[in-house]
């Protein structure tokens, strides 16, 4: 009887958690922000080849990272700033000054210094 009562409690709890999570994803996906309709977390996940370079300003930036950064800058420099300085980036132990130096290290000139001036990172 103990297992049935635990299941009876867990099923509604798990259902509630799934619904709350889906609601958050739906709200995030439907809102147009710095990256248009792409959620910041999704944009951040696309930059996974950049993790090493975003944690170490001396690290060589992989070509795959430069490609992803260039694509994100195409969305808008503010998108890149929002992604590199997002809570997801903080959770991943990204060093903001190292992260925002990636476009320059990739020789991508379109980015300018939008993040540096916007976030007072000189």
From TrEMBL:
SUPFAM superfamilies: Bifunctional inhibitor/lipid-transfer protein/seed storage 2S albumin. SMART domains: AAI. It comes from Eucalyptus globulus (Tasmanian blue gum). This is Bifunctional inhibitor/plant lipid transfer protein/seed storage helical domain-containing protein. Residues 35-115 form the Bifunctional inhibitor/plant lipid transfer protein/seed storage helical domain. Residues 1-31 form the signal peptide. Keywords: Signal. Pfam families: LTP_2. The keyword Transit peptide does not apply.
């Amino acid at each position: 009887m103990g297992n049935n009562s635990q299941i009876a409690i867990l099923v509604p709890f798990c259902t509630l958690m799934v619904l709350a999570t889906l609601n958050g994803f739906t709200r995030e996906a439907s809102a147009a922000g710095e990256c248009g309709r792409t959620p910041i977390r999704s944009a951040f996940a696309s930059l996974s080849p950049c993790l090493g370079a975003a944690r170490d300003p001396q690290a060589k930036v992989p070509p795959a990272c430069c490609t992803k950064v260039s694509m994100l800058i195409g969305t808008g420099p503010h998108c890149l700033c929002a992604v590199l300085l997002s809570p997801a980036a903080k959770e991943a132990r990204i060093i903001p000054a190292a992260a925002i130096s990636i476009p320059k290290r990739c020789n991508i000139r379109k980015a300018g210094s939008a993040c540096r001036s916007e976030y007072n990172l000189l």
